[in-house]
Every structure is written in structure tokens, then in C-alpha cells.
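Name: 4-(Cytidine 5'-diphospho)-2-C-methyl-D-erythritol kinase
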Amino acid sequence: AEASGREPDVALTIDKRIPVGAGLGGGSADAAATLLALNTLWGLDWPLERLREVAAGLGADMPFCLSGGYAHGTGFGERIT
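Structure predicted for 4-(Cytidine 5'-diphospho)-2-C-methyl-D-erythritol kinase:
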């Protein structure tokens, strides 16, 4: 909400099936999916590059989680090729 200038007017419940703290990127994947959903729900129409910028500010591996499929992450995972 902060990055978009909107009030945080959404409540989410996530049914996790990946153990918390397992190091499998479950939390980052959940956060990336939430970012994609809010982009649609709020009608932001942000391009993937803007979503990656916001995601990188939330977690180093989040931009990778936005890509889907196979990708190569460099740096801390914030640069995707």
C-alpha cells in the first residue's frame, strides 16, 4: 500500500503448505503473489519492472518469485535475467 500511495484496505488469509522457516522461499512467493494480486485489484497496471523494484525493497528473492518459470538471479537476487 505504501508504494502505491493507497490506504491498506485489504485483509488476506494465506493457507501455507510450505513449512515456515524451511528456506524454500515460501514467504517470498506468498508476498510476490500478493503484490501481483494487489496490482490487479487496485488497478495499478504497474509493469513487471516496477513490480520488481517494489519487490526488491521487501525481500532479496522476491523479484525472482515474480518471474515464474526459470530465471537467473544476480546480486542478492534482485536482478533477473
